[in-house]
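Write out this protein's structure.
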Amino acid sequence: MLIAIQGEPGSFSHEAALLADAQATLLPCALSADAFDAVTRGAADAAVIPIENSLAGSVVEHFDLLLAQQVAVESEWLLRIRHNLIALPGAELSGIRHAYSHPVALAQCRRFFVQHPDITASPSYDTAGSVKQLMELRNPSVAGIASTQAARHYGGEILLADIEDNPENYTRFFLVRRRAEVRAHPQPNKVSLAFTVENRPGSLVEALQVFAGLGTNLTRLESRPVPGRPWEYVFYADYQLDRPEAADQALERLPWHCSMVRELGRYRAAG
């Protein structure tokens, strides 16, 4: 399977893509929109995208792209985020002066920088990209903070493993395909959808009562502004199914209270 990802090879998205298909071929994309576009154009079979981190929260751009593009969620995966200090082979920890990585990764390793005041946290465009660049620069005083996959892919050496502050650091990834090509799971137990409500008192409560009335468990609810329409919002929701027919019933009843309803995916929850 050819899977599009945003970022460089060796990124956490790369690791997640290998969870989806251990034999996958990657199509790295500079922008998330490019990864979605590759799927809709048929240049890739699917895309693996991070949708939510247990510490940093949602990747809001990806919700907007899910709604805007003719794609749907086929499955989800949870990846434990393990940050590693990676340097040139033969480099020593005592000689490292700069550690580059994505700002989110740097923020998740604050304790490491407190414990190593001689090392400056330096922002980079991508976790795996920081390792790619240090291998090109060949500077033994520079390190990157990235995944084990990044060290393996670029030939870097892990000086310290698992330097993240919080071990309960997980990212939820979606595997998305063109809507017409999604392979339905025979026993889905989770749904992602988007909806808008009319701007009147009680409209959101009425929509949420649909989920309560069906006995479904709403696990996430988030609002995003509608581009070009100030003070109007799209609500993104995830809910769990105890019976498959509840998803169809929700799609039938929500339009009574919502001006727009779109199911983004019906899939099996990650274990």
